[in-house]
Each structure stands twice: as C-alpha cells, then as structure tokens.
Amino acid sequence: MIAQASTKDIWTVKYRPSRLEELVGNEESANTLHRLALSRNVPHLLLYGPANSGKATAAFALAYELYGEGFERNFTYFNSSDFFDKGKSYLVRDKRFTRILGTDDPRKVQKSVISVFKEIINEYASMAPIDSDYKIIFIDSSETLDVNAQHALRRMMEKYTATCRFILSTTQPSRLISPLRSRGLQLFFRHVSDEKLENFIKRISEAEGVLVTEDGIQALLYHSRGNVASSLDTLQVAVILSDGGPIGTQAIYDAVIREEIPEIQLLFEAFMAGNIIEARKIIDRMLIDNGFTGSEILERFHRTMVASGEPEHRIARWTIKVADANFKMLQAANDRIQLEALAADFCN
User: Fold this and answer.
1) Which of 188, 218, 236 represents a domain boundary (last residue)?
2) Most buried residue, 158, 290, 316, 330, by CB count within 10 Å?
3) Residue 10 located in a structural domain
4) 17 and 57 in contact (C-beta within 8 Å)?
5) CA-CA distance, 32 to 22, in Å (whole number)?
6) Is 172 left (phi over 0), alpha (psi -120 to 50) or beta?
7) What is the pLDDT of residues 101-116, one digit of tens each?
8) Do 134 and 204 belong together in one domain?
C-alpha cells in the first residue's frame, strides 16, 4: 500500500517504496532480491541500469526487508562520486568522516582521496554487525571509482565477506574491472513501461486528490520516458503551479520548464559561442557542485537544444554529436572529457 504523509513532503520521498513488492517495474530483479531476503543469505550484488531506474530504491527496500525498522544500524550508504568527483571539499562536510579526516578544512587534508576512500570503507566493513549475521554497505555511482579504488574494494569484499555484503550500483558496468563485476550477482534495472507508469501516476493522483486529465497523463509519460522519479517531480510541480486546478498538457509543460536548470541554458549559449573556457566552468559546476552525471547533462542539454528554435538541419547535426558523446560515456569514457570534447566540436 502507498503510505500517505504531509502534503508538504517531497513526493519522491513520500512514495518511495519500503518493500520490494512495491517497486514499479523491474519485477524480475525485485523478485530475485525478495527471494534472497527470505533466504537471509544475500551475496554481494551489482545493480546496473540507467539513472533513476530504481537501483537505490531496491537496495534500501532490500535492507528494510532484512533488518526491519532499524535497518540503518546495519546498512550504510556511500556515493562514490562524493569521493572521486566532488573530492575533499565535499568530504569534509560529511560528519561521518570528520574523525578520519581530522579536520573540516579541505586544505588541511593531507591524505589522497583514494587513501581516504580505502580507510573509510575498510573501517565500516570491519565493524561487526549489531544484531545480524552481516551488514550491508551500498556504494552508489560505482562507475566513478578509479581502477586503484576498484582493486582495493575487491580485496575488501573478499576479506570481510563473512560479516559484510557489498551492493554496488552503476549506470556503466563496463567501467568496472572484471574482477569486481565477477564478485557480485548482477541484476539489471530499466525504466518502466508507459502502461505501468500510467497506472502508478493514477494511483498517486488519486491518493493526493488531484485531477490529471488524459492528455496531461500522456504529456507526463512523454516527458518522463519511464523515469518514475522524474514523473513524480514533474507532477508535484504541476500540482503546485496549477493551484488546485486540473493537470493537463499545459500544466505539465509549465512544470517541465520550471524544472530546467539555468546552467543548461548557459552551457548551450557557451557551446553556441564557441566559448570553451566558460563551457568548462559550467561543466565543472554541474558535475561537481550539482552532482549531475554526464548522461543527465546531455539529456537536459538535448531538450534545450531541440527547443532553441534553431534550424532543423542544425539541430539534427548537433543531435548526432550529442548521441556520439553519450555513447562514448556508456563505453567507459570520462564524462568531463566527453563533455569538453563536445564543446570543442559543437559548432564545427
């Protein structure tokens, strides 16, 4: 059952499943995780698939089924991009790491990022579980781990397998070394079908007492493209903007426009002007400060590009370049390098 909460809650949090059976789509992977939870014998896991396809939600739901209400005692979440994309300036703001780092000033951190990563993961993995046979460490965005960190993680997975299980989540499994991939059971996650997402949207709108017209649902499906989190965000923004009115195509369009990030328009203008230095600054802000992946930036950039009013033949040529950059990212290339390469070649 979908649990209701305060109308001020963010819907992606309010309606986040706490049970594997509540996941929208990905039944095969969810059923596999459910059987593992029932057996109480969970191996290391590798969850892979596109961004916002339910990987993290599934990991949290698995932990809830294993440990119940107090699952936080035996479940630890890390995002590897915090270490290897955002770096020391971000890590010092995480209170969990203060004792290990010894300071909250990134300029005073003498250790390398990979040394900090090894020490933190090793410490959490070595601590005995509180009230279970094993604990779970969930490492999200594991494609951002460099090769040395991956080898170190592989050794820790082997060393602490008796008392600790690792769950890795990635959008790009090809960026993980083969020995690391082979340590875990691999489960694929995909965006959900329009039919399942439509049923989910109707359940949410009914629970919230919101009228969404048929054309509004179709517009939301078109914008979300099977992304459950995106559909919830857009629908909630549309409800707020509509001030109690029915949600139709125009309301969804207005919500989508509000969701667009100012940096995307600035990035498009820098690309158009051939201003590579400014483009690099914006790319760094989006990757490091805002925490976007390269693919997420390209997806939003493409929407801005299509809506720019530029001639169709020019948009078609740009779309090929964007698609090529996205393909290279999926083949384990560095996100920043591919975005900067696109900036350099965009108007040629």
Assistant:
1) 188
2) 330
3) no
4) yes
5) 14
6) beta
7) 777 777 777 777 788 8
8) no
Among 184-193, 282-291, 320-329, 330-339, the range of highest mean pLDDT:
184-193
pLDDT score of 333? 62
Show the tokens assigned to 227.
């992304």
CA distance linking residue 317 with residue 45, whole number of Å: 40
Q: Indicate if 177 and 223 belong to the same structural domain.
A: no
**Higher pLDDT among residues 259 and 121, named by residue:** 121
Same domain, yes or no: 78 and 204:
no
- Give CA separation, 149 vs 112, 117, 123, 337, in Å: 12, 8, 15, 20
Number of domains into which the chain is organized: 3
Residue indicated by tokens 């033949």: 313
b/e per residue 108-122 (b: at least 16 CB within 10 A)? ebeeebeebbbebbb
Distance CA 119, CA 113 (A): 10
> What's 47's DSSP letter?
E
Rounded to the nearest 10 degrees, the angle between the axes of helix 335-345 and helix 276-284 is 150
Q: Helix, strand, coil: what percent of the chain each, to 5?
A: 65, 10, 30
Q: Does a structural domain hold residue 12?
A: no
Q: Identify the domain containing residue 34 by its residue range.
A: 26-188
pTM (predicted TM-score) = 0.75
Better-scored residue on pLDDT, 288 or 186:
186
Tell me the pLDDT of the chain averaged across its residues: 86
pLDDT of 51 strictly over 90: no
